[in-house]
Amino acid sequence: MQTYGKLFPLIESKTRTKHKMESVLFGLAVGVGTFVGAPIALGAAGFTAAGVAAGSTAAAIQAGIGNVAAGSAFAVAQSIGAAGISATTAAATGGIAGAAAAVVEAVLP
Fold first, then answer.
1. CA angle 5, 11, 16 (to 5 degrees)
2. HSE-up of 53 (CA within 13 Å, CB side)?
3. Distance in angstroms (rounded) separating the CA atoms of residues 34 and 36
4. Mapped to the 3 state alphabet, what secondary structure does 2-31 carry?
5. Roughly how many angstroms between the first and final C-alpha of the chain, as a whole number?
6. pLDDT tens column, 54-96
């Protein structure tokens, strides 16, 4: 059985181009969503500029952890909540998430 690529090379080429564009757009959407959404999500979880908000999800996690180790995921989340996320870190995080999403989208049928 022949594929469209053998019978109609132009159709095959346009289909691949469309799929690549969809993958890029999906990756861009995930990257921008990560860039914008991470600080919002951390704030909603209770990581604020004044510290961990009492009665929040972050407070419950901190109560379970006890002493928070420097450099841990919790400490990084609190740092971002207190000082915000740097443009470089946000761009890198968004770029990595976007690229990963584009690769996944391109690989899945």
1. 80
2. 13
3. 5
4. CCHHHHCHHHHHHHHHHHHHHHHHHHHHHH
5. 20
6. 999 999 999 999 899 999 999 988 888 888 777 777 778 777 8
Reported as a single tens digit per residue, the pLDDT across 3-52 is 545 554 544 555 566 667 777 777 778 777 777 788 888 999 999 989 99
Q: Which residues contact 98 (CB under 8 A, 6 or more apart)?
A: 27, 28, 29, 30, 31, 32, 34
Pairing between β-strand 51-52 and β-strand 47-48 as defined by DSSP bridges:
antiparallel
pLDDT at position 74: 92
Three-state SS at 51: strand
Q: How many CB atoms are closer than 10 A to CB 11?
A: 11
Per the structure block, which two tokens stand in for 22? Answer: 């969809």
Alpha helices of the chain — where are they, by DSSP H?
A: 4-7, 9-45, 57-65, 73-83, 87-107
Q: Is the pLDDT of residue 107 over 90?
A: no
